[in-house]
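Hallway conversation turned thread

IA: we were arguing at lunch whether anyone had actually written out Glycerol-3-phosphate regulon repressor GlpR end to end. Turns out nobody had. So, for the record, here is the sequence (267 residues) and right after it the structure tokens. Reply here if something looks off.
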Amino acid sequence: MTSDATPLAKRSDRMVAILAALAEHGSLQLAELSTLLDVSPATIRRDVASLAAQGLLSRTHGGVRSLGAAHELPVSLRDGWHRASKRAIAQLVAGLVPPGRHAIALTGGTTTTEVLRALRQREDLTIITNSVGLALEAAGQGQSRVLIAGGVLRPNSLELVGNLAEATFRQINVGTAIVGSDGVSVSGGLTTHDEIEANTNHTMIERAQCVIAVADGSKVGQVTLARLARLDEIDVLVTDSTADSAELERIRQHGIQVHVVTIDAPV
């Protein structure tokens, strides 16, 4: 059995692994999941119960079934997924932020949070966000100028959205917007799971002189429900070496500057 020191001893990692396995197989028995993740049947039962309660899978007799359509993972489950990729992306993006006093706007998300962490030594930045989690992270690392756009809280993403947040963004000028998404593609542009969140983040993008999209390789070529930006509204895409190379070339052909960080494997 897996020891507590291994990555899948972390519950959020196990839950994401369960959902990934269901996306591939459609349905699985609990015993199969126990073997696949190398954890006890009791642990699998608890994880499955939690995922079912969040509406992320369907329970069957002795097993589980995928709900079929792509569902948005709660932010609490995303932190450990593709961690190495997100950190490498963040380090590259930090180097793209101009020196000196500068206003950066960040959407919510685990990759944008890693970007903020990579900028922790930059005391000359103004941080603008509609993400509660990211604002708390900024305050915790000592950023002295943090502007939070108010609005209605989305529990899954912990972002504040709607008319109030959009009105806030319209009153400010942004040097660089750093934008996460659930999909980036030639056909869809930048997409996410919620239309109201997409509209709010698009308002942020409209106020920025430079827009940097950040996405681990699993999101390249994906299209989800709501478009938050057309491809021609993006200046730079930073992703990793697991991304579909053909899709990246198509994105380059649309005039987007693409940076690819090399990683050994998805983490």
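OS: looked through it. The chain has a mean pLDDT of 88.
IA: good, adding that to the notes. Residues 183 and 222 are 5 Å apart (CA to CA).
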